[in-house]
TrEMBL record:
SMART domains tied to this protein: TRCF
Name this protein carries in UniProt: Transcription-repair-coupling factor C-terminal domain-containing protein
Domain Transcription-repair-coupling factor C-terminal: 59-157
Organism of origin: Phytohabitans flavus
Transmembrane segments: none
GO biological process: DNA repair
InterPro entries per the UniProt record, alphabetical: P-loop_NTPase, TRCF-like_C_D7, TRCF_C
Pfam family name, one: TRCF
């Protein structure tokens, strides 16, 4: 891991993908960067790549990152990004958060948002989603194959929602702080709203490692 990180420090992640990127993690994206590091380590060790897990794209207006004044050393910051991204259960994520607090202190708002994104990604993955994102004034959830009963439930909770059966996609107007004249939700409030929508429509998620019946 450290060999791969050092290599990326020297050459810059942007150079690996082409274009004039800064070389920082935001230049290539959090999940892609972590996957690149993992693949580099596997190649170095001569290991066969593990079965690729489906990516979960969370593209929502959330200010989520590790500020330089919270973790000042680049290598340590990337290590913490990796730990948060690689957590596959709530217990693993909680463990990473406890370690982060012990080492660097109480996290500021942007870090708390980053943890919330990682937690919501676990929720989305448990429902089989690969995409939760903003499209104009709407939120998109996909893929979602809704039987008639769950389509009725969706309409009951969100009358203005649209279900596209052919592409297994749900589109819902972006929520606001107030029905009239409110500001669009963002950050943790928006993540919590999205998680509640999924629970309302689909029921409780299946915990990681537990097969549904």
């Amino acid at each position: 891991m450290y060999v791969a990180m050092k290599d990326l420090e020297i050459r810059g992640a942007g150079n690996l993908l082409g274009g004039e990127q800064s070389g920082h993690i935001e230049g290539v994206g959090f999940d892609l960067y972590v996957r690149m590091v993992g693949e580099a380590v596997q190649q170095f060790k001569g290991e066969r790549p593990a079965e690729e897990e489906v990516d979960v794209k969370i593209d929502l207006p959330v200010d989520a990152h590790l500020p330089h004044d919270y973790i000042g050393v680049e290598r340590l910051r990337l290590e913490m990004y990796r730990k948060l991204a690689s957590a596959r259960t709530s217990a693993e994520l909680d463990e990473a958060v406890v370690e982060m607090r012990d080492r660097y202190g109480e996290p500021p708002a942007a870090v708390a948002n980053l943890v919330a994104v990682a937690r919501f990604r676990l929720v989305a993955r448990s429902y089989g989603l690969t995409d939760v994102s903003v499209q104009g004034k709407h939120l998109r959830f996909a893929p979602l194959a809704l039987p008639d009963s769950k389509q009725l439930r969706l309409k009951r909770y969100h009358p203005d929602s649209v279900y596209k059966h052919t592409v297994e996609q749900v589109s819902v107007p972006r929520p606001a702080t107030r029905r009239v004249g409110g500001e669009p939700l963002r950050d943790q409030a928006l993540l919590e709203w999205c998680a509640q929508l999924l629970k309302d429509v689909l029921g409780d998620p299946v915990p990681a490692g537990v097969s549904g019946t």
